[in-house]
Design goal:
membrane, transmembrane helix, mainly alpha, metal ion binding, zinc, elongated, 338 residues, binds zinc ion, Rhopdopsin 7-helix transmembrane proteins
């Protein structure tokens, strides 16, 4: 109820302040039943205003605890809005989540178009069209699910505590799915002539990914105190790729890994993800300029941009691997260790 009063006051601002103080005086003398009735009326009025899109952004210090995520973003927050219609309409308003929503909404549309284009590529461009399209399909599925869970979460985050909790779990699960999906085409082409380690690494990343999804279902995982743990879990999941990379470099040699193996693109992809996760965990740059990055360029937005860039760089690397496989054909000679 406190929240509704705060949001109403913020939406009405000055013109209401006198009236509100008079009402507060009257409020004190009311019977508990009348007070409850009055509060219900205010709540209904508030829900109606939100439904109509008549709300204004509020400062961080009046947010309810479940919406207090980053205390370096001082102003520009959406009030709690228990209406999906209002949450979706807020996509087109300017507030702390606008950049977070659009970076992954546009990223999602981009990967959806890229995925459709890739799936409709003529079969003569592949050695084993069905198998390769399934392998790439899993990467696109991971990327599209991650980005769509993310923009949906940021859109409905202010709906209510329950809704924000459900969607934050989907958001974190999406990151694990993106990482798992990214491993599939990379392992498939890197270990093309040696399916046994490929299969083992696929099982390991699936087990680790599922473990990360299970951990992210824990309610405390979404809290601000666990920001570093969250970054660590997903960074660890992504960096587990170091083991198959070392396997490849040791068996094929650095030169082959750097040219045919696309290690350069993989390194770039890893550094984009690591930079994004580090900014996210340390809340840079808003930590140095509290209140200056409320709407644009705060750490979460930058992290989103680094995720989209990292996923695209990964796609570029694995499509180079695919092209190389197509050039040399599907056969595996005696010398092909991998
Ligand atoms: Zn996000």
């Amino acid at each position: 109820m406190t929240i509704s009063v705060i949001a109403l006051q913020s939406s009405e601002e000055h013109e209401c302040s006198d009236e509100a103080s008079q009402e507060d005086e009257g409020f004190m003398g009311m019977s508990p039943l009348l007070q409850a009735h009055h509060a219900m009326e205010r709540m209904e009025e508030f829900v109606y205003k939100v439904w109509e899109g008549r709300w204004r952004v509020i400062p961080h210090d009046v947010l309810p605890d479940w919406l207090k995520d980053n205390d370096f973003l001082l102003h520009g927050h959406r009030p709690p809005m228990p209406s999906f219609r209002a949450c979706f309409k807020s996509i087109f308003r300017i507030h702390t989540e606008t950049g977070n929503i659009w970076t992954h909404l546009l990223g999602c549309v981009f990967f959806l178009c890229l995925g459709i284009f890739y799936m409709f590529r003529p079969n003569i461009s592949f050695v084993a069209p069905l198998q390769e399209k399934v392998v790439f399909g899993l990467f696109f599925l991971g990327a599209i699910l991650c980005l769509s869970f993310s923009w949906l979460f940021h859109t409905v985050y202010c709906h209510s505590e329950g809704v924000s909790r459900i969607f934050s779990k989907l958001d974190y699960s999406g990151i694990a799915l993106l990482i798992m999906g990214s491993f599939v085409p990379w392992l498939y082409y890197s270990f093309y002539c040696n399916p046994q380690p490929c299969f083992i690494y696929l099982i390991v990343i699936c087990v680790l990914g599922i473990a990360a999804i299970i951990v992210s279902q824990w309610d405390m995982f979404a809290t601000p105190q666990y920001r570093g743990v969250r970054a660590g879990v997903f960074l660890g999941l992504g960096l587990s790729g170091i083991i198959p990379t070392l396997h490849y470099v040791i068996s094929e040699g650095f030169l082959k890994a750097a040219t045919i193996g696309q290690i350069g693109w993989l390194m770039l992809m890893a550094s984009l993800y690591i930079t994004g996760a580090a900014l996210y965990a340390a809340r840079i740059p808003e930590r140095f300029f509290p209140g200056k990055c409320d709407i644009w360029f705060h750490s979460h937005q930058l992290f989103h941009i680094f995720v989209v860039a990292g996923a695209f760089v990964h796609f570029h690397g694995v499509s180079n691997l695919q092209e190389f496989r197509f050039m040399i054909g599907g056969g595996c000679s005696e010398e092909d260790a991998l």
